[in-house]
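Changelog-adjacent note: as of this version, every example in the card shows the full chain rather than a window. The one below runs 311 residues end to end.
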Amino acid sequence: MKVLVTGGAGFIGSHVTEELLKNKLQVVSVDNCVTGFHDNVPLGVNLYKMDLNDPELEFVFKDEKPDYVIHLAAQASVMASMNDPYLDFSTNTAGTVKLLQLVKKYNVKKFLFASTAAVYGEPSYLPIDEEHLIHAQSFYALSKYSAENYIKHYSQYNGVESCILRFSNVYGPRQNENGEAGVISIFINRLLANQKVKIYDGSQTRDFIYVKDVAHACQLALLSEVSGVFNISSCTETGIEDLYFKITEATGIPAMPSYEPRRVGEIEKSILNNRKARQELSWDLKYTLLEGLSETIKYYSEKHVKTNIRV
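Full-length structure tokens:
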């Protein structure tokens, strides 16, 4: 069986690709490499460097004949979405619709979509389950939720089997340390570089999940017969300040952070209930936060050493 992974050269996509290969599935990847890197793609996996809205995308379906599609490619910056909502829409919403049309035309068995906890907005209760009110507070969240609705309707009217996974705060090796969402990779890399770390208030809490647990959830959801929406999370509340000091302890770099006021519009607490995924996908976490941090710190420490040697 062959799986087409969009965003396969990216942070989450490269780990999903490795998980699929480990389970003896063939993988082909599509990525425009704006935030992804060719080096992230395992040897032997065909990488088509193109955008989702590229007319050539159809030839990938025609030539490769994938049985399944995992759609991870996205414009994922909230700030970028607020500055250029049309780019956000064309990538996240229109790009998804384009894929759905190709999925139907080329008889793909199942379409798996990566969504986000951001669609829930400020929670009215915790932990947030899949029935929680949707309140998108950025164009990014709105573009993802709009894509979700297209998928639901397309499945209903065109018989395309689909599944939507809403990820909490994913972290791990290969995350872009220059991005805005990867607080763990930002903390680790600034500590390793002897740079001051800024914490904006620090009392906020988030639900951090290791990328390999996310990849395993994708593999299970793809091959199962279930459909619908599932939260993929640790269902564990971790304070940002507490997280920082866990990282300083694990790295052995006891640096004090610089505290700044909380940024406008930032959600105070976000924890996703993962019960539905655990029950219906037979999925569970394999990594604790400390285990995931340990692997992530090891990865960035080795990368930091290699970079310094090259310099």
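Structural remarks: The chain is about 40% helix and 15% strand.
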